């Protein structure tokens, strides 16, 4: 509709100041109606590998523990994080780098033999990682990140930086795709709950249209206990980490809004936006 051709305010004869306010409101409503961002959710990294992310904003989630590690490492002063899909690729990147690089990652939750750090966010202190390039290879998270390489924008999400990501996405006009990394190709409740929390918090700041899975995860988050550990009781991947001795990692990864920063992928390097 062209407001130049049809002026509703003049038709109903309002004072000039009121006309201006009404027109601004109508224009705002019209913009929101035709620019309402779409939000979709993908349940696993393997499902992401067959998705076309062109022109979209991807948000990768691997709460336990890759995206929590990336968020923590960058908050502790790491220069960047370079995601590798395989152990061999990580080693090649490391060999081609310099002394400012750290080779990091896990398989079956444990540090890879010959690597300097594993996948525990508590290892990534400022004394160890400040100024370093982190070359990271994990079982699920870095695969999900690499699957989104064609996205116009790629953002790292964890509970630790939830608020910062919500604030950034509230301004987003691209289609938003939440990518839950999952566990070895299977759906994982920890990532799903994180996605649901983001959807609910983002909905308070931005009008969204969303897919059925996004709606389901929103409902899961709405009906879950505020205590994230309690909400995830019985979650397969959480229980697996507890059995492997990573209780402190789990507790840390389930903290909300610890870091006011948003890691984004630039080419193949993840860097921070404060």
Describe the model:
By secondary structure, this protein is an alpha/beta fold. The protein has a single domain, classed as ComB-like (putative 2-phosphosulfolactate phosphatase). Helices cover 41% and strands 18% of the residues. The protein contains 13 helices and 11 strands. The strands form 3 sheets. Strands 7-2-8-1-9 form a 5-stranded parallel sheet, sandwiched between helices. It has a 4-stranded mixed sheet with strand order 3-6-4-5, with helices on both faces. Strands 10-11 form a two-stranded antiparallel ribbon. Strand 10 and strand 11 form a beta hairpin. The N terminus is likely disordered.
Characterize the quaternary organization of these chains.
Answer: single chain
Number of helical stretches of at least 4 residues:
13
Residue runs with pLDDT of under 50 for 5 or more positions:
1-6, 28-33
Find the count of extended strands (DSSP E, 2+ residues).
Answer: 11
Gross morphology:
globular
Largest sheet: 5 strands, parallel
Query: Which range best describes the helical content: under 10%, 10-25%, 25-40%, 40-55%, 55-70% or over 70%?
Result: 40-55%
**What is the percentage of strand-forming residues?**
15-25%
Describe the strand arrangement of the main beta sheet, using strand numbers. 7-2-8-1-9
The ordered string of helix (H) and strand (E) elements is HHEHEHEHEEHEHEHEHEHHHHEE
> For the residues shown, what is the average pLDDT?
91
Which superfamily, in CATH terms, is the homologous superfamily? ComB-like
- How far apart lie the N and C ends? 40 Å
Instruction: Give me the CATH architecture, please.
Output: Alpha-Beta Complex
Radius of gyration: 21 Å
The CATH class name reads Alpha Beta
CATH topology: putative 2-phosphosulfolactate phosphatase
């Amino acid at each position: 509709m062209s407001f130049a051709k049809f002026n509703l305010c003049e038709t109903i004869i309002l004072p000039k100041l009121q006309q201006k306010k009404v027109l601004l409101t109508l224009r705002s409503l019209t913009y929101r109606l035709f620019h309402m961002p779409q939000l979709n959710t993908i349940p696993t990294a393997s499902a992401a590998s067959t998705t076309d992310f062109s022109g979209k904003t991807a948000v990768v989630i691997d709460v336990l523990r890759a995206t929590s590690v990336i968020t923590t490492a960058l908050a502790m002063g790491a220069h960047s994080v370079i995601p590798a899909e395989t152990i061999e690729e990580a080693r090649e990147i490391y060999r081609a780098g310099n002394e400012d690089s750290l080779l990091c990652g896990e398989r079956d939750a444990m540090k890879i033999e010959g690597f300097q750090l594993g996948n525990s966010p508590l290892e990534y202190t400022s004394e160890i990682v400040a100024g370093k390039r982190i070359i990271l290879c994990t079982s699920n998270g870095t695969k999900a990140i690499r699957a989104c390489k064609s996205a116009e924008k790629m953002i790292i999400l964890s509970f630790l930086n939830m608020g910062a990501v919500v604030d950034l996405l509230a301004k987003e006009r691209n289609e938003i795709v939440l990518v839950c990394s999952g566990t070895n190709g299977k759906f994982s409740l920890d990532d799903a709950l994180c996605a649901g929390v983001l959807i609910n918090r983002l909905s308070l700041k931005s009008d969204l249209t969303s897919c059925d899975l996004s709606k389901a995860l929103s409902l899961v988050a709405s009906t879950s206990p505020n205590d994230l550990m309690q909400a995830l009781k019985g979650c397969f991947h959480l229980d697996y980490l507890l059995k492997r001795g990573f209780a402190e990692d789990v507790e840390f990864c389930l903290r909300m809004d610890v870091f006011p920063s948003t890691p984004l992928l630039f080419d193949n390097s993840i860097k921070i936006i404060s």
